[in-house]
Design a protein that fits this description.
By secondary structure, this protein is mainly alpha-helical. About 60% of the residues lie in helices and about 5% in strands. The chain has 3 domains: about 20-105, Fumarase C, Chain B, domain 1, CATH 1.10.275.10; about 115-145 and about 160-195 and about 220-355, Fumarase/aspartase (Central domain) (Fumarase C, Chain A, domain 2), CATH 1.20.200.10; about 365-425, Ribonucleotide Reductase Protein R1, domain 1. A hairpin with a 2-residue loop joins strand 1 and strand 2 (about 160-165).
Amino acid sequence: MKTWGGRFTEQIDSLFERFNNSLDTDQRLIFEDIEGSMAYASALERAGILSPEELKQIGKGLAEIKKRAEKDPGWLSGQRDEDVHSFVEARLHEMVGDVAFKLHAGRSRNDQVALDTRLFLKRAIIRVQVQIKGLNHSLLNLSKAHLDVFIPGYTHLRKAQPILFSHYLLAYFEMFQRDYDRFDDCFRRTDFMPLGSGALAGNGFPVDREVLREELGFAQLTRNSLDAVSDRDYLVEFVSAASLTLVHLSRLAEDFIIYSSAEFGLLELSDAVTTGSSLMPQKKNPDSLELIRGKAGRVFGHLMNLLTLLKALPMAYNKDLQEDKPILFDSLDTLLDCLQVAQTVVKTLKVNKTAAQQSVRKDFLNATDLADYLVRKGLPFRHAHELVGKIVLHCESKRIQLEDLSLAELKTYSELIEEDVYKALSLENSIESRSVVGGTASSRVMEALAEAEKRLAIVE
């Protein structure tokens, strides 16, 4: 069904008709479209455009369409209607006759689709946030179960300083919590009700937009009809927030891929999230994590696609905006899949404590602690840094660790070094001396865990 045509004298080209139709994509908005149509029918009845009996007929017809769509998800596929709005109107006309055509009085598909998209996105954001909370719960559970595990901390993918494994996991908790907050911000700017803006100039009938806002569950009204029908900033914010979340997921995936390799051996991925090779019988491939890493780029591409789509669009609505729905839907689906798979990876992850303890005692991770020791003895840090570098070079040549040097050997580098240096060089001291807020000391990590659990409880 077409919702236009009176001023046309020729038939639409069949190729262009297929090119123009969007029902295969925007059918996902059908329940939002029905919800908006029901609220608008009530507004028209209050404005005197529909009679109470006509409102009743329309309400019954829309309820039947909703019921059929719920029972038969494939109902819309293959239909020839131009979009989800004309599909609903056509089916409603089949049920209640010409009264269905009164429903569009004062309403344009421009404000209709803006409403549908905002309704859909508000619910989508909540779904995403539920998954982010689930992932962060899993990270906290893994942290609490491995409070006694030390691992090497890395910079430039080279061993740097020892840290608690729980401290490492809490870094990702912080990233995902920021993502959660970003979706909160996106929700607030999505939560504006555009219905009643018409095609661009506003509604020509006395519909009460404030009542519509309340019925549809929005926090505020859009304040300018031109902006209301052409604004897609909220979609850019959503795909941007999704992209940042996937940046963090890709970093977690990359870490786990590396740390679970035979070369590192710190982690082991479960069979549930790995696959084998069609040729090499021994392989256990981290496909779950590689796909998360790869799918991140897919959503980054959607963000650039959306920004390019919106660039330099003249005021107000343009058909270019039809292309925002595939971007929204695929970004949402990809993000939800990646969050759910990441949860399964974390929940089933095994930590190789023995390998971690062995790894953390090699490669001079306590070199900074020796420099700090000398600073406490009164040596300027730059001098201490240079001196420890020379000691490390000596140890490398002998293939020993700093703590393997005798006190006499250490004193050849500085008379400031005493017997207490060995306590300073201990793994436990290296961890516990980082006791500033946000540090890896066990007391601070316990505080951070308790605080993280409180923050999660607040958003539940």
